[in-house]
Amino acid sequence: MDFNELNGKIKSCTNCRLHKSRINSITGEGNYNAEIMIIAQAPGETEDREGKMFIGPSGIIFDRLLQNAEIQRDNIYITNLIKCYLPKCRRPSKNEIEQCSAYLDQEIEIIDPQIIVTLGFHATRYIFKKYKLNRPPKNEYKNLFGKQSYVKNKIIFPVRHPTALLFNPDKEELLQENYNKIMKLLP
Ligand code: SF4
User: Fold this and answer.
1) Region 3-184: CATH code
2) What is the mean pLDDT of residues 123-134?
3) What are the Cα distances from residue 9, in Å, to 3, 5, 86, 102, 129?
4) CA-proximal residue: ligand 1, atom 2 (nearest)
5) Reported pTM
6) How many whole angstroms separate alpha carbon 36 and alpha carbon 80?
7) How is the chain split into domains, by residue range?
């Protein structure tokens, strides 16, 4: 399957109830030959309305973190675990993750990145499960942020989601340190 076909399927997907409330399902964006793939949780309200990834308030923070880490958005591939807006930015359900993650699996297969950066709890938990890495109790996932794991031919690198800074701006230095590490992980 190529990206034309995959993105067409995502755009017209009705596999879970989120299709009823979304305006746009959001496909991944960026470089299809990227060595770095970043996986966020789900589109926000602005992204849902405009049909693009990371353009709302957390997108502004995300761009700043990338820029300071000298990562060009054009050189990486960014996507979401869940492709449709979760009303009131609620957590994704088990069923929604099960239904939607098949698209993410296909993106990983096509891009075959060297580094997978997961943003926040849900994307991290999904990728840890996919690659059969040890998963800690929910309240200990924060201990994984900023630490790399090696699996097959990939590095898995969880960091906090940029949205965290909307609620805890004092964590910016910590997040920036983690984002700065991403480029250094490349072989
Ligand atoms: S969230 Fe995923 S599975 Fe659900 S309708 Fe959107 S694209 Fe389909």
Assistant:
1) 3.40.470.10
2) 97
3) 10, 6, 19, 11, 24
4) 100
5) 0.95
6) 14
7) 3-184
